[in-house]
TrEMBL record:
SUPFAM superfamilies: Adenine nucleotide alpha hydrolases-like, Class I glutamine amidotransferase-like, GMP synthetase C-terminal dimerisation domain
Sequence ranges assigned to domain GMPS ATP-PPase in this UniProt record: 207-408
Function: Catalyzes the conversion of xanthine monophosphate (XMP) to GMP in the presence of glutamine and ATP through an adenyl-XMP intermediate.
Catalytic activity: XMP + L-glutamine + ATP + H2O = GMP + L-glutamate + AMP + diphosphate + 2 H(+)
Glycosyltransferase among keywords: no
Entry keyword annotation includes Glycosyltransferase: no
CC annotations in GO: cytosol
Known EC number: 6.3.5.2
Protein name: GMP synthase [glutamine-hydrolyzing]
GO molecular function, one term: GMP synthase activity
Biological pathway: Purine metabolism; GMP biosynthesis; GMP from XMP (L-Gln route): step 1/1
Length: 534
């Protein structure tokens, strides 16, 4: 997808390392305005080539007083001013703007973290829709503050402690917010962004998923020659399925998909997924049963990272074999590989400035078929690489991917290998976790709360406990249930079930799954834990 072809003004975010930067991009797209995020230290040419109408300088963990604090490129201010580009600095972005334009930033006498009241002092510019004296709750997260503003700037809002909360220079179209309007802890933040973009900047909203689909199909057709063939490894997840469906709509049966049963799938996963691929989406999919191959390699392995590496290596071997078989059948090598890379993967592969990590444009390995043999020489097609998860689901609806499939909870690449602690081949651990997981998920669906949960699953613990079942003493396994709510999987809270639900599920599991006599519930948020157990 070419950003220049989008029927919307572009809002460009310069990322200086804030944990909320992705949220800014998503909030703006929710307003039907196209938004992209690039490194805050990108060359000026990278910014100007995108021709943005608005540039937002994100927050970040740095202080402008540090010698290694990141900054926008030299010439950025002059370019923005001479081209009439609106600039909004958020938190660190405000302080950077103030300092670079000749103002003064100093360590605040009172640091401001968390919820804070601010009061509007001037109902103009970014607060043009407010009245003087209006108050709102916002989310602050800063230790430094603007002490002296550059010429032309004025304060338009202050915090309850008297610190600068918002500034602007309307003549030069420079604006700044010391708080984070993009987070839900700033209840009126979304309205502030909306007013700024539409009423202050005059941004044109034209970001529609239908246009994204049409443009991507055109890009694919322009990229893939009429006699070229394309391969895609389907995981059964939303991303790869939507990517494959889009490519199939563009080039038809020159797309060749493979779905691998690695012996680590959920209950009846293979049958359910293949039915969706063939009956609903009419995708050309080859199913490879490689369960014995995977499980034999995993026998005796207990280290979670080692399990992941073994699984990744076996996937590559199978994928390589599939590509060679296809070459013999077609009489030519496949030319392209489809991947369901999403925009967060692209952003996260380029660490923000000041993080101490090297910038890299390699997509994260767990979202690639990483380590493909060099002699395959496949070129990538990544039709979703500028989209977020919720946007992929929107695109999937337009492509008529069944709604229950689009709403499926995420499932890890290594499958049940990371939901069975220890050796996955030990005893009947896989059968137990499949049955427990099926009961848990079906109960959640029956209760009508599946869509309220980001991810839910069962975990097999290599621990036995004493119980009493049928008047008999038992020494059986312990399982745990995990369910979390989240917006993007980066942070998560455990889902609070009704006691009656938990009682019923526990009884079902103990009465129907042989080998289990104790059910526990994971009530840990992320952080400190991860969502998955391994």
């Amino acid at each position: 997808m070419d950003p220049k072809a989008v029927k919307s003004d572009l809002v460009l975010i310069l990322d200086f390392g804030s944990q909320y930067t992705h949220l800014i991009t998503r909030r703006i797209r929710a307003l039907s305005v196209f938004s992209l995020c690039i490194s805050g230290t990108s060359p000026l040419s990278s910014i100007t080539s995108l021709n943005p109408k608005v540039v937002i300088l994100s927050g970040g963990p740095h202080s402008v007083h540090s010698n290694d604090s990141p900054s926008f490129a030299d010439g950025f201010v002059d370019w923005a001013q001479s081209n009439g580009v609106f600039v909004l600095g958020i938190c660190y972005g405000l302080q950077l703007l103030v300092q670079r334009l000749g103002g003064e930033v100093r360590v605040g006498e009172k640091q401001e973290y968390g919820r804070m009241d601010i009061q509007v002092e001037k109902n103009c510019g970014i607060f043009g829709g407010n009245k003087v004296g209006d108050k709102q709750v916002v989310w602050m997260s800063h230790g430094d503050e603007a002490a002296r503003l550059p010429d032309g700037f004025e304060v338009v809002a202050r915090s309850q402690q008297g610190a600068v909360a918002a500034v602007e220079d309307r003549d030069r179209k420079f604006y700044g917010l010391q708080y984070h309007p993009e987070v839900t802890h700033s209840p009126e933040g979304m309205e502030t962004l909306r007013y700024f973009l539409f009423d202050v900047c005059g941004v044109n909203a034209g970001w529609k998923m239908e246009d994204v689909m049409d443009e991507e199909i055109q890009v694919i057709n322009n990229t893939v020659a009429p006699d070229d063939h394309v391969i895609c490894a389907l995981s059964g997840g939303v991303d790869s399925t939507v990517a494959a469906t889009l490519v199939h709509k563009a080039i038809g049966d020159r797309l060749h998909c493979v779905f691998v049963d690695n012996g680590l799938l959920r209950y009846k996963e293979r049958e359910r997924v293949m039915e969706t691929f063939e009956r609903d989406l009419h995708l050309p999919v080859t199913c490879v049963d490689a369960s014995e191959q995977f499980l034999s390699k995993l026998k005796g392995v207990v280290d979670p990272e080692m399990k992941r590496k073994i699984i990744g290596k076996e996937f590559i071997c199978i994928f390589d074999a599939f590509a060679h078989e296809l070459e013999q059948k077609l009489g030519k090598k496949p030319a392209f590989l489809v991947q369901g890379t999403l925009y967060p993967d692209v952003i996260e592969s380029c660490p923000p400035p000041g993080s101490g990590r090297t910038h890299s444009h390699t997509i994260k390995s767990h979202h690639n078929v990483g380590g493909l043999p060099k002699d395959m020489k496949l070129k990538l097609i990544e039709p979703l690489k500028l989209l977020f998860k919720d946007e992929v689901r929107q695109l999937g609806r337009i492509l008529k991917v069944p709604e229950p499939f689009l709403k499926r909870h995420p499932f890890p690449g290594p499958g049940l290998a990371v939901r069975v602690l220890g050796d996955v081949t030990e005893g009947n651990a896989l059968d137990i976790v499949r049955q427990v997981d099926e009961i848990f998920i079906q109960s959640i669906k029956d209760a009508g709360i599946y869509d309220s949960i980001w991810q839910a699953f069962a975990v097999f613990l290599p621990v036995k406990s004493v119980g009493v079942q049928g008047d008999q003493r038992t020494h059986s396994y312990v399982v745990t249930l995990r369910a979390v709510t989240s917006q993007d999987g980066m942070t998560a809270d455990w889902y609070c079930f009704e006691n009656s639900f938990l009682k019923e599920v526990s009884q079902k599991i103990c009465n129907n799954v042989r080998g289990v006599n104790r059910v526990t519930l994971d009530i840990t948020s992320k952080p400190p834990s991860t969502i998955e157990w391994e």
